[in-house]
Design a protein that fits this description.
With 123 residues, the chain is mainly alpha-helical. It contains six helices and three strands.
Length: 123
């Protein structure tokens, strides 16, 4: 693996096995400016085109998507329930655990709340 950082005054290139502690320091210090490149002999692939991604994506339920998007937006079950028209924490929990299906009306509300396609919340 190769780590590359370029700023107006700094260029760092590290090749080979990079210790995790060093990677952490670079990520903290340079954030979005760091790039990780595969070695020349490594084959680059688009993860979204792999069988692994297709398999994982197919296994994610609408309830799991709800939980993922809720957590990624830093919302509790109570907060998301309030934002969806006063749904209880228990109702949100039941949706996330797939014990209750997500209605098409609720899927539309979730898609607007999280700014994603409503298909994420339909089985």
């Amino acid at each position: 693996m190769q780590a590359v950082v370029k700023t107006p005054r700094i260029e760092i290139a590290i090749r080979g096995e990079i210790p995790p502690r060093l990677l952490t320091v670079l990520e903290v210090e340079f954030g979005d400016q760091i790039q990780f490149l595969a070695e020349e002999d490594d084959e680059r692939v688009d993860v979204f085109e792999t069988a692994w991604y297709t398999n994982v994506k197919a296994k994610i339920t609408s309830g799991e998507n709800l939980k993922i998007y809720r957590q990624n937006h830093g919302l509790t079950q109570v907060q998301s329930g309030d934002m969806l028209g006063g749904l209880s924490r228990r109702h949100i929990s039941n949706l996330e655990h797939n014990t209750h299906p997500i209605s098409s009306d609720l899927a539309q509300k979730l898609s607007r709340l999280f700014d994603v396609s409503f298909e994420k919340f339909t089985s």
